Amino acid sequence: MKEFCLDLKNLHTLIEEIKNIVKEGNNIFLLRGDLASGKTTLVREYVKSFYPDEDVTSPTFSIQHQYGEIFHYDFYNHSLEELFNLGLLEWLENKGVHFIEWGDEHVEKILKTNGYNMCVIEIFKLQTNRTYRIQNG
């Protein structure tokens, strides 16, 4: 497990770590944290490192946004049954990097059962910083 305590100006350190994890072959990231902890901000900074002009927003109502080969999901207020009926496992077969906001332990267990490897990033909100705890594999 790795841990970073960063302010928003220094997220590039975490973004480089995520890129290294992707190079190692893990392309699914479950993002966990309270409301307004910075899950969408993390995805926004990752996307902007490839597509600087892209307007990244939370896919809360649409469930998924795609930016090139970067997929951004928001599972808040959606049941696992609904997500599987919509094709969650098929979505994850798309080539690219997948960020799942609100990817809880139930999602993690189902993905592992279906043969998916993933990285969990827990975000803890401090006053002006965030602590990012990364569990890879």
What is the terminal separation in angstroms? Answer: 10 Å
3D shape: globular
Question: Mean pLDDT score, rounded?
Answer: 92
Structural class based on helices, strands and sheet pairing: alpha/beta
Largest sheet: 7 strands, mixed
Strand content: 25-35%
Biggest sheet strand order reads 1-7-6-2-5-4-3
Q: How many helical stretches? A: 5
Instruction: Round the Cα radius of gyration to an integer and report it.
Output: 14 Å
Number of E-type strands: 7
Point out poorly predicted stretches.
none
Order of helices and strands: EHEHEEHHEHEE
Give the assembly state of these chains: single chain
Percent helix range: 25-40%
Detailed description of the structure:
With 137 residues, the chain is α/β, with parallel strands linked by helices. It contains five helices and seven strands, in the order βαβαββααβαββ. The radius of gyration is 14 Å and the shape is globular. The model has no long low-confidence stretch (mean pLDDT 92).
Explain the layout of strands and helices.
Layout: E1 2-6, H1 11-23, E2 28-33, H2 39-48, E3 64-67, E4 70-74, H3 80-86, H4 88-91, E5 97-101, H5 105-113, E6 119-125, E7 130-136
Parallel strand pairs: 2-5, 2-6, 4-5
Antiparallel strand pairs: 1-7, 3-4, 6-7
